Structures are given as structure tokens and as C-alpha cells.
Amino acid sequence: MRASLIQIGVDPDESVENRRARVAGLVREQVGADLVVLPELWPVGAFAYESFAAEAESLGGPTAQAMAAAARDAGVWLHAGSIVERGVRGEPTGAAEEGPLYNTSLLFSPDGRLERTYRKIHRFGFDQGEAVLMSAGADPVTAQLPGAVAGLATCYDLRFPELFRLLVDAGAQLLVIPAGWPARRREHWTLLARARAVENQAYVLACGTAGTHAGVEQAGHSIVVDPWGEVLAEAGPGEQVLTVDLDLDRVARTRADFPALRDRVLGLPAPRG
Predict the structure, then answer these.
(1) What ranges make up the beta strands (E) of 112-265?
(2) Does pTM surpass 0.90?
(3) Is 217 a catalytic residue?
(4) Which of 57, 85, 130, 155 is catalytic?
(5) Residues of the chain by 3-state class (helix, strand, coil), percent to 5
(6) For 36, which DSSP code?
(7) How far apart are CA 174 and CA 202, in angstroms?
(8) 2-260 under CATH 3.60.110.10, yes or no
(9) CA torsion sign, 9 to 12 to 14 to 17?
(10) Statement: residue 96 has pLDDT above 60
(11) Is 40 a catalytic residue?
(12) Which position among 85, 120, 130, 207 bears the catalytic label?
């Protein structure tokens, strides 16, 4: 599998419409890739909280339409990062009349169909920002790609290993993680990406943003890690495309040669005090 991670610069002086068109053009340039991955909330910026409500879209909105067309034109599977999704009115979340907001990832097939969506489960911000503006997703999501099952996660999810265990138990061999990770915690980004690869014996494709938006410098440093924890490719801090050829058989070989997943002990009792 050939995977291309497009590390997008989110410039506050660039309109959402112009960025959407520019990113669609970048996707179209990835002809020959099997899978293309974009970052989290690239249309608006992961920390641009004040713009979330105004820029919220439906699953059939302008970003989804533009990315569906770009995936179709390039003939690629496209993980289009995530959008601020405006949910359907009346969903059981206690949200306002317009419907709840979600941080929602979109996965398109090479014919432009929206094959999977994933609403981010772990929202960042503690008692502010995304944590209070967005509703939480409820369900882990996997998707069958050519030659591998992908598990979907987003940014802050990376800190919660139990989610990735669920994805692996559902068959995931490839973990796709768009993010808008801040530069001040870049070392955590690299460390956690490698940890999720090692403990799950799976490829990790973690795609971040570049630039500074809402006053928050972004880490960049998108990274591809193999099932043994080796870094196959890592971007710098600026806008960049990483293209890597993945040997999908390496997942099965790693799990057979070092069968740590087989030795998991589940259902342990609570610690004794």
C-alpha cells in the first residue's frame, strides 16, 4: 500500500473556501497512492473554537463534496481528516435546537463514496474549548481498505490506549490518526504514535497540521510508524507531503514472530488496597 499524508498549513489569513480548494488540488496530485490522509479540522483549525459553530457542516456539506470529488479524480481512498459536523436536530445529546457539534472524520472510497465516519470520542480541553463545544462520539470505527483493516482515531484519542485495543480486537492492522497537535507537546506526539504502534503491532499513520492558528503553533511532524515501532517517515514543521510504501504483510509477520498480543490477560480484578 502506498500512503500519502498531507500535512496542511492552516493559515488564518486564508479563507476556508480557498483552503478547501487548495487541499482538493493537493489530493488530486496524489495519483498513484492507495490511501491519502489529511489532518484534523483543517478547514477551520483545531484551536479556532470561536469559529466552530459558524463553520459547522453536514456530512453532505461543501468539504465533503469537495473531498469526494478529489478522491474520485485521484482514484484514491481518502481519509479527509475531520470537519466540524453539525449533527441532526433531536439527537439525544441535550444539544441546542440547531443540533450538536461533532469532530467528525470522513473516509471516502476511490469512487467518491463516503464509506465511513468517525466522531471523535475523546475531546480535548478539559473544561473548555472542544471539550465543551463538541459532543462526544460513542463508537469505535474500523474500515476495510485494500489489503488491510484500518482503525480510525483522532488527535487526543492517541492518549487513550484502550481505544486502540478495541480497534485491534476488531481487526485493525493500520491505525489512522489525523490531528491538530500543538508544538509545545510535540515530543508526546512522536512518543505516543510509536507506543500505539508497538503495543498493537500495527502501522500508525499520524497526520498533523503545520503553521499557527488561533495563536497555537502546530507541531507538524506527521509520522508513519511500522508494527515494530520503527519510524518509516517523519515530516518537518512546515507544510509537506509524506509518501510511504507499506508492506502490509509485515503486520502478520510481526504478530507471529513476537506474539505479545496473544499473552494479554483480560478481566483482571481491581487492585487490592
Answers:
(1) 114-119, 141-145, 148-152, 174-178, 203-207, 212-213, 216-217, 223-225, 231-234, 240-245
(2) yes
(3) no
(4) 155
(5) 30, 30, 40
(6) E
(7) 5
(8) yes
(9) positive
(10) no
(11) yes
(12) 120
Tell me what pLDDT residue 204 has: 99
pLDDT tens sequence across 19-75: 999 999 999 999 999 999 999 999 999 999 999 999 999 999 999 999 999 999 999
H-only helix segments in the chain: 16-28, 52-55, 62-74, 130-133, 161-169, 186-200, 249-257
Q: Which of 69-78, 173-182, 209-218 has the weakest average pLDDT? A: 209-218
The set of cell numbers assigned to 102 is 461533532
- Please choose, from the candidates 98, 27, 121, the residue with its C-alpha nearest in 3D space to the C-alpha of residue 68: 27
Task: State residue 239's pLDDT score.
Answer: 97
pLDDT at 199 over 80: yes
75/262 Cα distance (integer angstroms): 37
H-assigned helices in 78-170:
130-133, 161-169
Q: Which three cell numbers stand for residue 140?
A: 469505535
Considering the candidates 40, 57, 85, 130, report the single residue annotated as catalytic.
40
Active site residue 207: no
From the list 205, 234, 222, the residue with the least C-alpha distance to 1 is 205
Q: Which residue has the cell 481498505?
A: 145
